[in-house]
Amino acid sequence: MKRCYIFFDGTGSNINSQQEQKIGRDIIAELFIHCQAEDIKPLGLNLLNINALPAQRNELAGMSDVKAYFPGPGAESCQWEGYTYKTPGGGDKKIFSEDIWSLNTINQLFGNGWLYNIHCAFQLVQFLNDEDNDTVFYILGYSRGAITAISLAARMAGANISVAYLALVDPVAGGTVGSVEKFNLEAYQGNRILPYKINSNVALCDIFYACTERRAEFSPQLPVKYIRKDLQSKPLLIDDQVNCYLHFINGDHKQIAYVERRHEKRICQAAIDVCNIIASRKVFDQSPYLFALSRQRDEYYEPDPVSKSLTYLPRTISRLWRYSGGSYYSSKYRANYVHDLEILDRIQRQSAFPIAKNVKNSDLIALVDNIMPTGWYSKTPFRTDRKSKWLKQIKADICFDAQEDPEIIDSYAFSRHYLMRIITVALVVRGGNPITRTGRNLLNLINGGARYNKFKKIIKCELYISNKHIAYHDLLTFTNTDLSVLADKDAKETLYNGRMLAR
Fold it and tell me: What domain range includes position 417?
């Protein structure tokens, strides 16, 4: 049985970097260095195309236990023991949807480089799994590296590859990535960072949280029961089958990951606690490093002050470490995945109502007028005159409802009902094209103008949530709304999930 250890470091972190020499080496790099498995770096593999070098590939297949280290987003290229650990994505930026900037500060700000790390790691995982189905995978990550680890595990779930152990040290995505607001936008997209769910392919998972971190910009992905009930919260859904343990540590985002703070000449007990818990899982062969840590103790100390350029916001879990009466509190996570999903659904729906109050019937009428087709396309099965007829009928219905009951136009149901009708008409297939000219006009308006941006939010909050199996890209391109409004015999076909279905 072969074992494979994959280590994802945090933002800007690399082995032997200037940052490391200044403030110290974090536990991901320490665990990688002291892991007894063979490093794949000396092989000189091209993980973007692992089959390109047959000799090195065959040598990899012949190794017993292997390990791989991936520097964090925006980390500078560094030398360690004669080998270069490059900036993630440097020189290969055209392959991915993310931009790798020459200025690493920008890459660190936005996390650019983590898609590169995921792709390379997944290539390695696929190769080892194809060579030996009994390969056991262990994945560890810190900060954005922990987010990368979650995403890799999710991608492995799609390929039916199991993860024996997943260790996440304060998983922080940064920005709005991973928020409730973007859950439906990101959760079902391919080639994306997917920090939302730990799937059933993970056998054992340890998640370590820095309870005393007070910077809002460093909000972690938390199980749903611990998040604030707003769109900016960062949820983490955990499958019911995962054996998951949460560890609430007395320390901030740095203290939880750096055993030695060189610039402060301090030892962080929070990071030692993390290492001791990981060592207790016996996923590593016992090393002198872990043995030394298990005997070392140091005092806790106050977290770093919050800079004026950042937002002060204590975490909802700030006091949980006290529950055990010791230095940290651990508990097995018990929750219902479906129930957690319903909570996220409710948060998003509730946030949609203020949007609806800003919708006016004149905006809906203007939307209809702006997408009204012109010209004549006699060769198409759905002629422009028929589409105009449907849109004119919708416009007349809006005006009628507004006159009969003026209060109804402020309701969410009113806006949703007519938006669904407009979308359905605009996206009816014509001429076999993936989208009609009217549909293109609709998408351009919704995506481009501030006046119609609220329509996009309503669609995201309402139509998509009710159809979670549809990718967000398909949401505005196609529709699976009730076509009863198009029961007219002229509407014979619609495009649903890329296929033609007879009505």
Answer: 358-502
